[in-house]
Specification:
By secondary structure, the chain is α/β, with parallel strands linked by helices. It has eight helices and seven strands, in the order E-H-E-H-E-H-E-H-E-H-E-H-H-H-E. The chain has a single domain, classed as Rossmann fold, CATH 3.40.50.720. It has a seven-stranded parallel β-sheet with strand order 3-2-1-4-5-6-7, with helices on both faces.
Length: 254
């Protein structure tokens, strides 16, 4: 039997792939056999690229700011990945930001910035990749959402709204593209040790409250989110369409 998780020969693009969850996913896809391109904004990608190349895979990176992305910018990023890797089979929409502030004080500019990066760029890149994948009759689109796609959180109204929205987008796209050979699914990570949660982890009271709520008793390592991405990118998930896989240490079960 062939290994259903084998990604040998697949071409993947991971947004925000130079750090945190994105880096974990990029390296896991490479370990499963895929060639990987990634986008980065401020974290330099050399270490991640070196890890991928050390596995014998092709690797490439392009700098991109997803705030205010338009269709031309999305097309350029998808075009870069296709040219650098010789095709595109997998898109992981991982890049995102969080803004913490009391809702009554949150400026409109900050609301729009979060929605632009967390939702608009996901739509534009998925559309651009989808055009290519529908045309070739196959492809995997994975959208990183959050446990806050099922909750409201505290002082993160724009982030929670954007993560609810990308789960809706996941389901809407799967309804159109499942019959065309394209799988669209989502991963909902719980609280993970990344830059986005640094302030929470450094706040003794908030960190204690969160850890008491997580049945596993700890924050996730970014690499622990990556297995779900490998699964969704592989033939093992051929019949998964519109699914949301939660990787949260039991947070939503509490």
């Amino acid at each position: 039997m062939t290994n259903p998780f084998d990604l040998t020969g697949r071409k993947a693009l991971v947004t925000g792939g130079a750090t945190g969850i994105g880096e974990g996913i990029a390296c896991a896809l490479a370990a499963a056999g895929a060639d990987v391109a990634l986008t980065y904004r401020s974290h330099q990608p050399e270490d991640t690229l070196a890890k991928i190349k050390d596995m014998g895979r092709h690797a490439a990176a392009v700098q991109a700011d997803f705030s205010g992305m338009d269709q031309a910018a999305a097309d350029r990023i998808i075009g870069f990945a296709k040219e650098a890797l010789g095709g595109l089979d997998i898109l992981v929409n991982n890049a995102g930001i969080i803004h913490r502030e009391e809702s009554i004080d949150m400026p409109l500019d900050d609301w729009r910035r979060v929605l632009s990066i967390n939702l608009d760029s996901v739509w534009l890149l998925s559309q651009a990749a989808g055009q290519h994948m529908v045309s070739q009759g196959s492809g995997k689109i994975i959208i990183v959402s959050s446990v806050l796609s099922a909750q409201g959180g505290l002082m993160v109204p724009a982030y929670a709204a954007s993560k609810h929205a990308v789960v809706g987008l996941t389901r809407a796209l799967c309804n159109e593209w499942a019959s065309k050979g394209v799988n669209v699914n989502s991963i909902a990570p719980g609280y993970t040790a990344t830059d986005n949660t640094q302030a929470l982890r450094e706040d003794p009271n908030r960190s204690k409250a969160l850890l008491e709520r997580i049945p596993a008793g700890r924050f996730a390592d970014p690499n622990e989110i990556a297995g779900a991405a490998v699964f969704l990118a592989s033939n093992a998930a051929a019949y998964c369409h519109g699914s949301v896989i939660t990787v949260d240490g039991g947070w939503l079960a509490r």
